[in-house]
Every structure is written in structure tokens, then in C-alpha cells.
Amino acid sequence: MNLPRHIAIIMDGNGRWAEQRRLPRIFGHQQGVESVRRVVRECLSLGVSHLTLYAFSSENWGRPAEEVAALMELLAQFLSQELDTLMREEIRLRVIGDIALLPPAVRRVLDQTIARSSGNGRLVLNLALSYGARDEILRAVRSLAGQALEGRLSLDEIDERRFSASLDTAGLPDPDLLIRTSGEKRVSNFLLWQLAYAEFFFSEVLWPDFSAEELRRAIDDFGTRQRRFGLTSRQGPAET
Ligand code: FPP
């Protein structure tokens, strides 16, 4: 099987899942956490080594205050409940995004979990929190421009490798497969630089209903794609 090394997921449809059941939206997010657990388990069993989840976008701060608070609470709960599993299953937690904006209690548990799990190497679970790709790119540009202005970096030295290394995803391979659930077909300011050569899979399933089977369907579909990275099929190697 041609397995993606890095899967990125836009987990969409929690609100609609709840509304269809006449439940408050937060019930959809709670159910969404179960999908997160299922997908992490399936990645471990398949041997996927990197998983990035879009858990909270920089635009999500504009949602009603009680929904934002409930999402932050869910996140803190998830992290403290899952620490044992992360250690047992050798999962390393990482985070991308402007985490300075997160409430102090969430930052504390995030920092602790990242530090504790930093030696784990079976799966990198990368959470996008308070994340927006344009913001990430601008922060990288500012940092590189600052170094150039101080004379520590020449303009020629600003190449793809150095730019990638200035993004929040420094050190992670680019995603091979992007999955978006709930039938929406947009990138929504997610990993705009890193998705340059990713394959996209759009699932109709709402995130709280996203199953291990649906993940395998996306991975099987990925296996049928011929990845050319801008070359011709003759030049192949179709995939790596
Ligand atoms: C999109 O659904 C989902 C979110 C904005 C939040 C995703 C968060 C979780 C699954 C739970 C917390 C995450 C972790 C990693 C523990 P939506 O609310 O935009 O749905 P809608 O488009 O149907 O309204």
C-alpha cells in the first residue's frame, strides 16, 4: 500500500452534526473529539507517522464567546485525559499557530504535554490552534526580514529550505494528503505553503461521523493517485 507519511485534516461539520439532532453545537465538538481519538488510533495501526489536525483557526476566535470557551475547555480536557495514551503509544504532540493568544490554562497544559512527549517518535500529532496560514507566513517573513535587516542573513540565503524552516511546521515533512470532511471544498487558510504538492480528498461525512473506514477510503484513494511533482509521467518516479 502507498501510505501517506503525513496526513492533514480539516475537521469540518461538527456544528451541522449537532444542528441535525437539534443539539447545541458543542455536542458536535464533543463528538468530534471521539473522531480525533479514532483517527489517531487508525494512524497508529496503519503506520502513518505525521497527523496534523485543524482544531481551531485564527478566524474561529470570532465565534460566539461561549462556543470559543467550550472548545478551549474541550481541548484542555483532551490533553490532560490523553497524556497517558500519548506516552504509552509513543505519540509526540506538537502545535502550530499563534498560541500566545490561547488562554493561560490551555497553554500550560499544552506546554507540559509537548515537553513530556518530546522524546516520542512513533506518531507526531500536530494540532493547529489559533492557526491561520497567512498569519504563519507573515510571521516567518517578519522573522527573516528582521534577520536580514540586522545583517545576519543575506537575501540570497532566503530560499525554500530556509523559508520552510521559519514556519511553525519547521522540521515536519509537507503533508502528502489533505482530507476535508463535510462536503466543503475549500482550503480555508490551512497550510497554504506546505500543501503545494499534496493530494486532496473531500469526504461528504461530517467530522463527528468520520470513521476509521472513511480514513482508509481516503488513504486507498491516495494510493491510486500518480504524483508527479510538476514533472511528466515519463519522468516519473510517480510517487515518493
Ligand atoms: C469545525 O466544525 C470544527 C471546529 C471548528 C473545531 C474542531 C474541534 C474539535 C474536533 C474538538 C477539539 C479538538 C481536539 C484536537 C481535541 P464547525 O463547527 O465549523 O461545523 P459546521 O461547519 O457544521 O458549523
Report strand order across the widest sheet. Answer: 3-4-2-1-5-6
Determine the fraction of residues in helical runs and give it as a percent range. 40-55%
At CATH level 2, the architecture is 3-Layer(aba) Sandwich
The tally of domains stands at 1
How far apart are the first and last residues' alpha carbons, in Å? Answer: 12 Å
Query: Which series of helices and strands comes N to C?
Result: EHHEHEHEHHEEH
SS-derived structural category: alpha/beta
Mean pLDDT: 96
How would you explain this protein's 3D organization?
Strand 3, helix 4 and strand 4 form a beta-alpha-beta unit. The chain has 7 helices and 6 strands; from the N terminus they run E-H-H-E-H-E-H-E-H-H-E-E-H. Strands 3-4-2-1-5-6 form a 6-stranded parallel sheet, sandwiched between helices. The model has no long low-confidence stretch (mean pLDDT 96). The chain is 43% helix and 15% strand. The radius of gyration is 18 Å and the shape is globular. The protein starts with 5 loop residues before the first strand and ends in a 16-residue tail after the last helix. 34% of the residues are buried. Bound molecules: farnesyl diphosphate (FPP). Farnesyl diphosphate is lined by residues 11-16, 29, 32-33, 36, 53, 55, 60, 74-75, 78, 127. Farnesyl diphosphate (FPP) binds at residues 11-16, 29, 32-33, 36, 53, 55, 60, 74-75, 78, 127.
Layout of strands and helices, then pairs:
Blueprint: E1 6-10, H1 14-20, H2 25-46, E2 50-57, H3 65-88, E3 91-96, H4 104-116, E4 123-131, H5 133-149, H6 160-166, E5 177-180, E6 199-202, H7 212-224
Parallel strand pairs: 1-2, 1-5, 2-4, 3-4, 5-6
Bound molecules: farnesyl diphosphate (FPP).
Residues 11-16, 29, 32-33, 36, 53, 55, 60, 74-75, 78, 127 line the site of farnesyl diphosphate.
